[in-house]
Write a structure and sequence with these properties.
- Two copies of one chain form a homodimer.
- The first copy, chain A, has 152 residues and is of the alpha+beta class.
- In chain A, the strands form two sheets. A six-stranded mixed β-sheet of chain A has the order 1-5-2-6-7-8.
- In chain A, helix 1 crosses helix 2.
- The termini of chain A are far apart.
- In chain A, 47% of the residues are buried.
- Chains A and B meet through strand 2, strand 5, strand 7 and strand 8 of A and strand 2, strand 5, strand 7 and strand 8 of B.
Chain lengths: 152, 152
């Protein structure tokens, strides 16, 4: 599984869009891949890119709620085969990557879970408190940076 | 693909071991999963856990080289089905997760690539400069924390 959609290194690697709460109070960030393709036999191209719709729906819903969750549209999370794909990260917390998310059905679950995640000290929400979608869709998790940061 | 080996939330979630260079000069960290099982029909249990050997080999080789790369043995990276699994992260850099790594063959490649990664400003090594193993084994990548951090 090569990262076929990741830019080659010569292209634009920038994050496409950032939105969300004041960085000083943001508890976590939902990074939404807007690049990966979902097979859609009913469309002329045979696929769509559902990530942009998911990112927009998350941002709109969060704005209405006024919670301290940021949403970031990202060009590629290198998962590619499991759209929609979302990463959840926060300062000092474990990072989680989720795939196979439905762009409509996942919105409320992701926001509620991001709230649980943001409220936890290390990002590790107890297994039994995780929604079913979150349990089933995990792609990877990564520890927070710690040894790589000067003590202060 | 549920994270079947991730502790349930009641168990010990701590990082098992940390080693490596002085945090103040560490350029990046290789997080090695020591939990996931590799099928081994020749063994009584039918599997081994190759991550611990990979983590030990990386730490020993890095100590000999004196490079500013930290190695961290981690209980679970939630990839589970693709041992060995390693995450590469650094302050202000994209995080990458790699799977299907051979515990012997991957050592030199990982150390060399971690050097390229550590020397890059954002962790994005140009595609053509990435070793074949690194290109083929990517599981996911995650942007650095930015909006989630107060500007300073």
């Amino acid at each position: 599984m090569a990262a076929s959609h990741e830019p080659s290194g010569e292209g634009d690697l920038s994050v496409l869009d950032r939105s969300g709460a004041d960085p000083a109070v943001t508890t976590c960030t939902l990074h939404v891949c807007t690049t990966c393709r979902r097979a859609r036999a009913d469309l002329p191209d045979g696929y769509d890119k559902p990530g942009a719709a998911l990112a927009a729906a998350l941002a709109a819903r969060i704005e209405g709620l006024g919670t301290a969750i940021a949403v970031e549209a990202v060009e590629c999370l290198s998962v590619c085969k499991r759209p929609c794909t979302v990463a959840l990260s926060g300062e000092g917390k474990w990072t989680y990557v989720y795939g196979d998310l439905d762009p409509q059905d996942a919105v409320e679950t992701l926001i509620a879970f991001a709230g649980q995640y943001g409220a936890s000290p290390d990002g590790v929400v107890p297994w039994r408190e995780r929604p079913e979608i979150i349990r089933k869709s995990v792609v990877a998790r990564i520890p927070p940076l710690s040894t790589a940061r000067p003590a202060r």
